[in-house]
Amino acid sequence: MKTKILSIIFILITISSISAKEVLVVGTYDSFSAEWGPGPVIETEFEKNCNCDVQYVSTSQAGTLANEIFLKDKDVILGVEMHEFDYKSENWNIYDYGYFSFIYNEETLKDIPNSFEELINHKNLKIVVQDPRTSPVGLGLLRWMKLTHPDNFPSILKKFNNNVLTYTPGWSEAYGIFLEGKADLVLSYSTSPFYHQEYEDEYKYKAIEFTDGHLVTKEIVYVRPDSEKQNLGKEFIEFMMRDNIQKIIAQMNIMYPARENDNNIPDRMRKLKKPKEIKYDNFLEAEPLIKIWLEVASS
Amino acid sequence: MTLAILLPLIGIFSQYNISASFEFSNYTSSIIFFTVYQSLLSALLSIVVGSLLAFLLNTYNNFYFVKIIAQTQSILFVLPTIITIFGILSFYGNYFEIYGLTGILIGHVILNTPLVSRIIYQSLNDISPNEKMLSRQMGLKKMSSFIASEWPIIKKNIPSLFVLITFICFVSFTPVLILGGGPKYSTLEVSIYYSVIFSNNFNAALNLLFFQLIICFSIYFIFFKNFKSQNFSIDDKRHIKTYFNFTLLNLFGLLILLLITLVIFSPILFIIVKGINKELLYILTSTYLWEAIYNTLIICFFSGIASIFIVYNLLVLTHKKTKISESLIYSLIIFSPAVMAVGYYILLFKLNLMYLPNIIIVIILNSFFVLPFTYNYLAPSFFRVIKENDDIANSLNLYGLSRFLTIDLPRLKKSLITAFCVSSILSASDLVVISFFGTNDLSTLTQTIYRLMGSYRINEAYSVSLILLIFCFIYFFLAHKILEKNKWNIH
Q1: First CA to last CA across chain A, in angstroms?
Q2: What confidence score (pLDDT) does residue B357 get?
Q3: Engineering a disulfide at B423: which of A151, B207, B374, B470 sits with its beta carbon 3.0 to 4.6 angstroms away?
Q4: Contact A16/B199, CB-based, under 8 Å?
Q5: Facing residue for B182 by CB, picked from A56, A167, A195
Q6: Alpha helical stretches, state H, chain A
Q7: Cβ separation of B456 and A175 shorter than 8 Å?
Q8: Which of B440, B445, B453, B458 is best to mutate for the A interface (most A CBs within 10 A)?
Q9: What are B272-311's pLDDT values in tens digits?
Q10: Which residues, 6 or more positions from A29, have their beta carbon under 8 angstroms from its beta carbon?
Q11: Spatial separation of the C-alpha atoms in residues A257 and A194, rounded to whole Å
Q12: Distance, CA of A121 to CA of B166 (rounded, Å)
């Protein structure tokens, strides 16, 4: 029996290694590589010319894209947030970006806050956000708040915490709770309304614009320094920056294309108002922010 | 079996730095306290509600619909936790201050009651008709009859179930995060997950895990002092006809039964209401759905088989030393799922096994992860049957496989089928293994639900959840039909 199993495994391994094409293993998150995401189209288009085989290995565990353990056998990593990237690779690029923003339903929320101060003065406003320990979006909120309130960050955060219904493990749970009508506001991206307009013909969801400005988040694609396929990886990254691919990314990943121009931005996305961007010099470290958050939110 | 637990830890320990210091923040100690508190309380409540439900199901099981409830409650395990939680928020969010301890307790009771109730219900079926008849002839009142015949059986099940549910709630992740409402109500598991995945800090993770183990083993030894597995037994074959009288007490009992059922089935009602939407037809024509159904079926079936195989052999090897097998099985729960998955991941890398087809890795790991549940479903009847058959097997000189096929199998068949179905269903609901080891071509229904939610497609996610439910119903139904028809006439 054991030998049988071993031989089956052996045969399977041999079959998989027969194909002669060069394989490019791309580690990404699974809403990118899913059938309805931009991944499959990009794969098909790229394979037309490269004589290679693009294979996505996707994760649904947020954070694993920035964890060295899970990256070892991959050539290209697609979708790491700019704050979590170590910038050691020579070949990398930003492929899309967005602004952290709160989303609301204009049919149910009339009095719209336009800053963190106004938001925390709305005692009845129920907000759902992501846990900064398990979600880059949740961590983004802490950075955003720290940048707009460098001096009184803990006290603002403490008041904000009073309006928070719950901190969810990831973006999906938070957005789901919001769509279920259980919260007035959800932390997401300013481009989120585009999805509902484009795919559901639904215009009631809107992004709040804060007068203090919004934190920008950028997604990075890079070739792993220890990959043997540096050239192929580089080609793939350059390919992702082409106009037609940038448009697909914007259209399906619901983010602004990094090389934005009139040709590659979808119409309804162009019509969304872009919030003011916060300018800053250095990235804020995650650990100290989380520590403050833990103290404030668990007391 | 031991290897299943030890290997991933070797993987993790290879990243451990012994010299690292061991210090706890205030936050960690408050979390440890809360984790213990909520898990004990959740277990207590789940057992009270679960035993009551099992008792009522057993009392009224001459009603057809009660039988259906008793049989189908296992299906409740399969719904992705997040969908169950959405159901809870929709049903109870408007009536309670749901976020906080209340929410966590409601969530854990709804998630664990079916498990308690299913196992106790099986044991209660074992009360012999004679015993019931006797208590009736003796003119015992309801209460005295309950104390004489049902209560001893429920009582025997409590210690093991208490430990099981406590451990499950101890490592609870998504329910605690969402229903807890903030880091004040959290579990050690959340901190462990954060240390392993985000801050890549294995020392911190292992220190926390170490604490988790100490506490859980203390709980285990406190509650297991008087526990002997041989004591509880299942026999599905005996049935007793109880005659239903329309007394006030009976009506009240039925009412409570319906109420509890409504509460624990509420997530299913939620999915039926939400899942039938305009996306459903579109989804049924998509290729990803059918690929996911195919993968789920393969993973379910083979992990079900594999976990039955492992548990059965473990039981045969250790049935004289149940403490060993039990502590092994239970430690699979409390060795944090995040740590186990990462441990396996590192290990497969070190052994250069990542080139194995992923579906094989997923099947094997899933069969490990569901072992505690397979064990709980199979062990009670195994101990009983083995004990009863020992004499006859010895006198016939039957050992090993031939003994299993001729003597034990016919009597264990029902429990084997139930354990197989539940293990399969639990593998279908897995998200940890599949998200670490799945690839783009290998996604299951549960993972598809999360993927859809991750891309704004919540209505599609509801529809796929409904399809997952239907899938499990059919799977349960077919497994019982096919396997029970087979007479196993091997002589």
Answers
A1: 58
A2: 84
A3: B374
A4: no
A5: A167
A6: 2-18, 30-33, 39-50, 116-121, 136-148, 153-163, 171-179, 192-200, 230-240, 243-253, 267-271, 286-297
A7: yes
A8: B440
A9: 999 999 889 999 999 889 999 999 999 999 999 999 999 9
A10: A58, A59, A60, A62, A65, A79, B454
A11: 13
A12: 41
Count of positions (residues) in chain B:
491
Q: Which residue has the tokens 């559901």?
A: A200
The tens digit of pLDDT for each residue in A42-89 reads 999 999 988 899 998 887 766 677 777 778 788 999 999 998 888 888
Query: Would the CB atoms of A73 and B86 count as touching at under 8 Å?
Result: no
Residue A7 neighbours by CB distance under 10 Å:
10
> What residues in chain A have per-residue pLDDT under 50?
none
Q: Specify the pLDDT at position B152.
A: 81
Whether residue B439 and residue A57 make contact (CB cut-off 8 A), yes or no, is: yes
SS3 string, chain B, reads CHHHHHHHHHHHHCCCCCCCCCCCCHHHHHHHHHHHHHHHHHHHHHHHHHHHHHHHHHHCCCCHHHHHHHHHHHHHHHCCHHHHHHHHHHHHCCCCCCCCHHHHHHHHHHHHHHHHHHHHHHHHCCCCHHHHHHHHHCCCCHHHHHHHHHHHHHHHHHHHHHHHHHHHHHCCCHHHHHHHCCCCCCCHHHHHHHHHHHCCCHHHHHHHHHHHHHHHHHHHHHHCCCCCHHHCCCCCCCCCCCCCCCCHHHHHHHHHHHHHHHHHHHHHHHHHHHHCCCHHHHHHCCHHHHHHHHHHHHHHHHHHHHHHHHHHHHHHHHCCCHHHHHHHHHHHHHCCHHHHHHHHHHHHHHCCCCCCCHHHHHHHHHHHHCHHHHHHHHHHHHHHHHHHHHHHHHHHCCCHHHHHHHHHHHHHHHHHHHHHHHHHHHHHCCCHHHHHHCCCCCCCHHHHHHHHHCCCCHHHHHHHHHHHHHHHHHHHHHHHHHHHHCCCCCC
Spatial distance between the Cα atoms of B336 and B217, rounded to a whole number of angstroms: 14
User: Distance between CA atoms of B447 and B434, rounded to whole angstroms?
Assistant: 7
- Interchain CB distance below 8 Å, B456 and A57: no
- Going by the DSSP 8-state scheme, the letter that residue A152 receives in this structure is T
Query: Using CB atoms, which residue from A167, A171, A199 is nearest to B454?
Result: A171
ipTM of the complex: 0.88
Residue B227 is predicted with a pLDDT of: 53
Interface touch A165/B99, C-beta < 8 Å: yes
Weakly modelled stretches of chain B, pLDDT under 50:
19, 228-241, 488-491
Structure token digits, residue B32: 């440890």
Find residues 238-257 of chain A whose CB sits inside 8 Å of chain B.
Answer: 254
Interface size between A and B, measured as CB pairs under 8 A: 157
Residue whose structure tokens are 């199998």:
B409
Q: How far is CA B414 from the centre of its chain?
A: 18
Residue from A186, A205, A240 nearest A76 by CA: A240
Q: How far apart are CA B274 and CA A179, in angstroms?
A: 12
How far, in Å, CA of B219 to CA of B346, rounded?
Answer: 30
Element holding A128 (H helix, E strand): strand A127-130
The verdict on a CB contact (< 8 Å) between A295 and B180 is no
pTM: 0.88
Enclosing H/E stretch for A59? strand A52-59
Pairing status of strand A127-130 against strand A185-189: parallel
* pLDDT of A108: 95
Q: What is the pLDDT of residue B255?
A: 92
A 183-212 near B (Cβ less than 8 A): 192, 195-196, 199
Interchain proximity B174–A131, CB inside 8 Å: no
Q: How far apart are CA A147 and CA A289, in angstroms?
A: 11
Residue pair A183/A126 in contact (Cβ under 8 Å)? The answer is yes
